[in-house]
Amino acid sequence: xxxxxxxxxxxxxxxxxxxxxxxxxxxxxxxxxxxxxxxxxxxxxxxxxxxxxxxxxxxxxxxxxxxxxxxxxxxxxxxxxxxxxxxxxxxxxxxxxxxxxxxxxxxxxxxxxxxxxxxxxxxxxxxxxxxxxxxxxxxxxxxxxxxxxxxxxxxxxxxxxxxxxxxxxxxxxxxxxxxxxxxxxxxxxxxxxxxxxxxxxxxxxxxxxxxxxxxxxxxxxxxxxxxxxxxxxxxxxxxxxxxxxxxxxxxxxxxxxxxxxxxxxxxxxxxxxxxxxxxxxxxxxxxxxxxxxxxxxxxxxxxxxxxxxxxxxxxxxxxxxxxxxxxxxxxxxxxxxxxxxxxxxxxxxxxxxxxxxxxxxxxxxxxxxxxxxxxxxxxxxxxxxxxxxxxxxxxxxxxxxxxxxxxxxxxxxxxxxxxxxxxxxxxxxxxxxxxxxxxxxxxxxxxxxxxxxxxxxxxxxxxxxxxxxxxxxxxxxxxxxxxxxxxxxxxxxxxxxxxxxxxxxxxxxxxxxxxxxxxxxxxxxxxxxxxxxxxxxxxxxxxxxxxxxxxxxxxxxxxxxxxxxxxxxxxxxxxxxxxxxxxxxxxxxxxxxxxxxxxxxxxxxxxxxxxxxxxxxxxxxxxxxxxxxxxxxxxxxxxxxxxxxxxxxxxxxxxxx
Length: 657
Description:
Elements: E1 2-3, H1 29-32, E2 45-58, E3 65-77, E4 87-93, E5 101-113, E6 116-121, E7 128-133, E8 136-142, E9 151-160, E10 169-170, E11 177-187, E12 190-197, E13 204-216, E14 219-233, E15 251-260, E16 266-268, H2 273-282, H3 287-291, H4 300-303, H5 310-324, E17 326-327, H6 339-345, E18 347-348, H7 350-363, E19 367-373, E20 393-400, E21 403-407, E22 427-431, E23 438-441, E24 448-458, E25 463-474, H8 475-485, H9 490-500, E26 504-512, E27 521-530, E28 538-541, E29 563-564, E30 569-578, E31 583-587, E32 592-595, E33 601-610, E34 613-622, E35 626-627, H10 632-645, E36 650-654
Parallel strand pairs: 2-11, 17-18, 24-30
Antiparallel strand pairs: 1-12, 2-3, 3-9, 4-8, 5-6, 5-9, 7-8, 10-15, 11-14, 12-15, 13-14, 15-16, 19-20, 19-22, 20-21, 22-23, 24-25, 25-27, 26-27, 28-36, 29-35, 30-34, 31-36, 32-33, 33-34
């Protein structure tokens, strides 16, 4: 999936013809008439041309080196579905002392009217900024006067103090691109590791020498001028069951390896894991918090007073932290201040909470470690060389006997040893205060398991009355508990559930183990629903009214990235309905037994009618958390067969004898 290029910056590549920026507002009739059939007949919008440059420049005001990035794009809008491409969001990152900024923003819409192009420039008052988090701001704007057939264009300059990562470039987006070009100027004394990710290949690339591109410390430096070009880039279509799109989109990334200092010597930025271990264990917001035993030394005996062994001791501490500190909805691998403050104010980010957990476990003389990871929506970690900024999350690991348990106390509804799915992403790095760090797999310790049992009877008035009992465990229980807890009471949840199921009326309910997260969640509902009105000699009854699969989650002709469910799953549905006397079964859905390759899963359906009783059993299993892209079409066909069969019904006829 990842095509890694290590580029020696002073080597020359192949030629790129006339790679350069284009004039703003120079919209042509060819732009307006561009046929999407040339690249994607299903496209709602297409990038006609995109150009970007990035360079290191000296800021005259601060005297610091900064990264200057210019971005210019022109897009053809074909229909109203393509209007969303006119909603632009530019992320800007910040830290405690410095932040990125945007200037020279221009944006216009061009419409062809009466043989001429009419430009509608965006009012600068339409630009606004949203503080997304402590470290991220979003600049947002929308292009004006949109019509089917409009051509939109915008450009801006971004200045960034972050020269370590240079500036990545996405050749691929959610719409096709005719041409996307990126030109970078890198001073000769700077050496970057460069990686091209994704499945699309560069159309061309060129490396040239740019003389005296930067002057710093009274010394002029030459630059490597590198141009990357990609043509006829297909849209990247996001689909269900995938991790971060950045893992799979075709894009180019830069990591600063080393700098040859003007005064001699070399500063290396590509660190070893030994360097990272030292940095993190010495870091006041990570290692220093893991070492603290003053916070919990007096209360650990109280927390663990009923514990009989190390496992029950760990569970008691885990439960205590979950109750004492509420997640503020910020993720992080560093404490925002310190663990004592988070405990005092009873609020913190994920690192605050889990560093408290590690400290408490260690104070109880348990073997606790930190694990840093990248969440599913943050992308996978580059393992070729350590880059700590790839990680964005910290959890706890406790080793008891020959077992290790991964813990995240930010989610109070999670049982001991079960991570939230956001953390189930490839591998994490274990940080230990006394020994070298190492990789571990991040896998779900439990399946998503649900069973539904309906026992009922069809009455002479055409209504079925009975009981639906649902048992949920693993991630199914966690998700259901979260859903119920969104409401002020279980009764309100059931009320809304009743509203969402107009064909089924809930007469009474009972929910067990809602707060006992280590146990199976059980729901029991007395229900009633109508099959037919009045007296019927013949009627249809669908047995697929519980968790019906209405839509295939897989609709692409091909998928180049894995299907990542996060966890294996098992769903079972059993329906038993007693019928009135003197009915015979004329039609029923076909019994099915279909499977996925390599024992990847199965769907079983069996329906029978004996002794005036309908019996229907369904089993849907996915045995793997991740399926390779090569098995995508099997999954697509698997769902298609299930959906097609679930469109059929039972047909009953009253026996006239």
